[in-house]
Structures are given as structure tokens and as C-alpha cells.
Amino acid sequence: MKKLPLQLLATAATLTVGLSAMGSAVATEKTLAPTNSDTVVQNIEFRADLSSATVKAALQGYDVEQLSNHTGSLLGTHQTAQKLAAKGIVITKESPYGSDFSAAPEAAATPSPLPNRVKNNSYETYFGGYKTIAAYQKLATDIAAAYPEFAQYVDYGDSWQKAKGQTGHDLFALRITANAQQSSDWQNNTNHKPRFVFSGQIHAREIIGSEFVSRFTADILNGYGTDPEATALLDSTEVWVVFGSNPDGIATVEKGLKTAATTSSGDGNPAANNTAWQRKNMDTDGYTGGSSDYTSSQPGVDLNRNWLTGWGGQGTSTDPSDQSYRGKSALSEPESKQQADFFTQLFGKHPVSNSSPAPSTTQGTVLNLHSYSNLVIYPYAYDNTVIPPNIAAIKNLGFRQSFYNNFATGAAGDVIYNAAGGDIDTIYQQNGVPAYTWEIGTSSQGGFFPAFSRTEGLYNKYRGGIFYTANAAAAPYKTPAGPTVTTLTATRNGDKSVSIKATANDNAFGTNPSNSKPSAQNVTAAEYSIGTLPAAAGNGTSLSLTDGTANSTTESFNGTTAALADGKQTIFVRTKDADGNWGPAKAIFVS
Ligand SMILES: [Zn+2]
Questions:
Q1: Ligand 1: distance of its center to the CA of 369 in Å?
Q2: Which of 456, 474, 492 is the last residue of a domain?
Q3: Given this model, what pLDDT does residue 17 score?
Q4: Is 439 a catalytic residue?
Q5: 239: helix, strand or coil
Q6: Pairing relationship of beta strands 569-577 and 586-590 according to DSSP bridges
Q7: How far is the CA of 440 from the centre of ligand 1 (A)?
Q8: Distance from Cα 304 to the centre of ligand 1, integer Å
Q9: Which residues have C-beta within 8 Å of that of residue 219, sequence separation ≥ 6?
Q10: Each residue's pLDDT tens digit, 541-585
Q11: Are residues 426 and 562 in the same domain?
């Protein structure tokens, strides 16, 4: 390939930021001059033919963000940009990381909500309100003690540092479900409930993930008994939360952020030599160090390049200092090996292949959180030309998620870059369960280090998609094909009957990209049932079409029950499309 000269635009730092192909929000930006310093972290934007093997080789090892077919960005210093230019990558812009963050100061942060029974406990925080990994471990044990009927603390292994006899950390999860005590023998799944696993921070510096997991935990525990959705979820499903999948790396990030600079909006803007940039675990094997640029050289194995399926393939590096170092072998790291074993304990071993797709009766869903780029990613992340045998159903659930956030949705190679050895591929391919990654946020929302005050708004905006995914655990390859009940009301009448009104939308899919969005059918039927759990699909009592004709992908239904006993009742409604697919049940209380 012909070597191209470094093309730095003189006015680059004042150009509009955001790659339009990814739909990034464009924010007001401060004008910061490009710098030649090797201590300032730069957002390096480039143009290159990303299908070229030479380009792929040049970009190997970097954590590439926000790519279209011919453009992308990554973090490094000016020296990184020079190195890439020497390899033929056309650098279109360098701007200091943080220069495209919103200039508007965020409102003062309110503390993260805690489950009510532990709300008077204090938990150590860093960077304006994020809980430390030590605090999360205390929170998890406190919740298990304060909510014995709902929660169980599970230690599933030790981190790399702990396994080496250094201080290190436990790997831990919290099991949350109604009647948890009566079913504490979770290895034998004695309550036979479907399972939803929600995890954050496998990449240590992607700090918003754990905060989302924490907020969801408080949401469902505080909502039980008052919020019909949270109540129905814990009655029907086992929720498993993992606050931090990479605790050694997270502790390293916490230390770094204590001394990191911030922008005027309060977002983190660490210098290049700050350990806040730690992405990987703290396995120092093979790492020689010696760089002042922690964004391009740091210890550790990329835990999301270390899993079994596709290990060693595209988007991974063999250099222990690289961001995407894959490790010496698949599952070489205790964090990934023990989490993979843990998933097998939760879901069993059910390998899928083209000749044996996961059965439609499969139960379970997995959602793990990364940042940033506003993406919903589904398998296979290692190679988007390898099509999972359950692809139609996997896409249905992915685009149902993005209905709530409108993130770009696809296999990793469709929306960003093929990346081999990621957890979602192994969970799907080995355990048969559909697994998803969300990349939360944009560079204008604080990038890797959003001001804590941003987290409440982002969580509230996206929580619907988390609940949808959790609720889909009962039949993840079936119900997402059916319509979503978008509004539901239930009113008690004078004769103690209850009037039900519902609206359902089979087209409740994300639309990015529109040419990949699953197709919708007309909504044709609705039914209700009364009780702690919804009746099985097709076994409820019919509601009537409000306009009498099933000729639209959005329809309204109504009906009136017989007289019901006094006191709180839970009513579930689900709806069906013209292809006969029943969607998930939505719950509502009536008093
Ligand atoms: Zn990540």
C-alpha cells in the first residue's frame, strides 16, 4: 500500500465533531489547539479503507471507536497519530480528548439511589459519586443480609491479582428474585425461573456500566410491590447482577481518576500517563511497561478478547501492551474463565452450530454494558460474515432493545468492528443464550468518564430496554417476534369488574439502521390474565379490537373482566401479530 502523508487539518480542532454515520450527538465544543505533547490524550480521527488487510494490521491493538466504512477514531497521543500515519492511515483530525464534550455544566449530581433497606449505609465513592469496587462488594453483601427473601450473594472466583497472592479481589454476583431463600440452591435452579444476567465494566475504564447495574438493582428491589413491572420481573425471573467483571482493573481506574483533570462540564479528562485509562485486567505477564502513554501501552489482557468463541481472530492483538491484547490462550485469565464457568452453571452447556440452533424453548438473556458509541451489539462479534443460526430471533430482541434507545444495532462488524474473543459470542455459542452488549453514551456525553450527574438521566432514558431484555428471559427466541404492549390501563368499576385498555405495537423496533430492522406485522389479538404470573401465551381471556379491524401494526384493545375480589390484583396483557407470534406480557396493578 502506498504510504500517505500525515494530513493534519490546521483548523481541525474547531471542526464539528461526531461521525454522522454513527449518529453521534453533536455538542458545543471548546476550541482547544491540537498539541504535540505526548502527555495529552488525543481523539485521533482517520480515513482508511477498513476492508484492507494492511489497514486492519495497522489498526490492530487499538480500541477503535465510532467507525463507518471509511472513517473511525481512536485514542492516543500525537505520537500515536504519527505512528499510524507512517503506516498509511490518513489522519483527518486530532483533538484533545475532552474538547468535544458538552461545555454546559451539568446540574449537581444527586447520589445514586440505594435499595431502601440499606439506604442509610455509606458506600465509598470516587469521581463525584461512582461507587468503588470495594463499595460494590459491601453493597452486595449488605443487600443479601437486608433482603434475605430477595437476594443472595455469590462469590464465583478470584481476580488475577488475588489468584497471584496479591491483594486482588473476589469475583462476585448478586442473585435477586422473589422467594430467594426457598430456592437458594441456585446451582440446581430449584425454582425453575428463567435467568437474566446484567453486568458492567469488563473494560475497567468504561465506568458508567456499573452505575447502571447499581441503579437497576435499586430499581427492582424498591419497585417490588409498588411497580408492576419490577414486581412481575422478580416473581417470574431470576435477575443476576455483576457490578464489575474486572475488579483489579476497576481499582486501578479509581486511583487514576482521583488525580485526573476534568472539563468544565465535570467530565474526566485524564492525562495520557494516568492509570484511569486502564481497560484490561492487571495480568502483568509479558508486559514490559516503560511508556508514558497509558492509552497505547498498559498491562493486562483484554478480557473481552479472551473468551473462547473466535479467540485469536480479528480485532485482537498478540502484544501484551496493546489495548486489545487477547492473552496467551482462550480463557487464560481467571476473570473470563471463571465468568464463563459461571455462565455454564447458570444456563448449562448447550453449544449451537448451523445444524443445531438453540431451541425456541431456550430461556435466559444476557446484557453487558460498555461505553461509549451508542450501540446495541449482538453475536457474532468475532466475524459478521458468520451468521448465527438463530439470527432472526437474535435480531428481533436486539432491535426491541434499541426501540428504547435507538442505538445503532447489529453484529459488531456491522456497527463498529469485528472483535474476536468477546463474551457475548461464547455465551451464545456455548450456552445457547442470546447475549448483547450495549455501548452507552457518546463523546459529547463524557466519553469514558461522564460526570456523575449525567448518569441519572442516561439510566432513566434507557431503563426500558433493560427491563424488556430481562422480561424476555422467559422466551427470548419467541416473544420478541410478537408485539410490544406500549400502554396499559386498568380501572376498577363500581360493580368490582375491571376495565382494561391496551395499545400494542409490532413495529416497536429501533430503526438504526433501517435496512436491517426486522419487519412488523399487523397486530391481530390481545388477551389478559389475572394472577402473580401471566397465563401462558394463548391461554388468556380475549380483549376486543377497539376499531374492530386488525389492519395496522399498532392496534388498541379493550375489555372488562368479571367482578374481582377486593384488594390489589395484577393483570397481564399480551398481544399477537398476524404471523401468530405472541409478544411479552405487560403487567399492571389495580386496587
Ligand atoms: Zn468496552
A1: 8
A2: 474
A3: 33
A4: yes
A5: strand
A6: antiparallel
A7: 10
A8: 7
A9: 113, 230, 463
A10: 999 999 999 999 999 999 999 999 999 999 999 999 999 999 999
A11: no
Residue for grid cell 463523546? 443
> Cell numbers of 178, please?
422473589
* pLDDT tens digits along 427-476: 999 999 999 999 999 988 999 999 999 999 999 999 999 999 999 999 99
- Characterise 374 by phi-psi region: left (phi > 0), alpha (psi -120 to 50), beta (else): left
- Whole-number Å distance between alpha carbons of 431 and 306: 17
Closest listed residue to residue 503, CA positions, set 571, 552, 537, 564: 552
pLDDT tens digit sequence for 83-97: 899 988 899 888 888
The per-residue pLDDT for range 290-326, each reduced to its tens digit, is 778 999 899 999 999 999 999 999 999 999 999 999 9
Which structural domain, as residue segments, surrounds residue 243?
128-259+300-474
Q: Report CA(233)–ligand 1 centroid distance (Å).
A: 28
Ligand 1 centroid from CA 203, angstroms:
5
Could you say which of 106, 335, 439, 527 is catalytic?
Answer: 439
* 3-state SS, residue 181: helix
Q: Is the pLDDT reported for residue 184 higher than 60?
A: yes
Burial of 495 per CB tally in 10 Å (0-12, 13-18, 19+): exposed
Residue 403 CA, ligand 1 centroid: distance in Å: 22
Ligand 1 mean position, distance from CA 224 (Å):
31
- Residues 364, 432, single domain; the answer is yes
Dihedral sign for Cα atoms in the order 210, 215, 221, 223: negative
pLDDT at 139: 98
Residues 401 and 522 in one domain: no
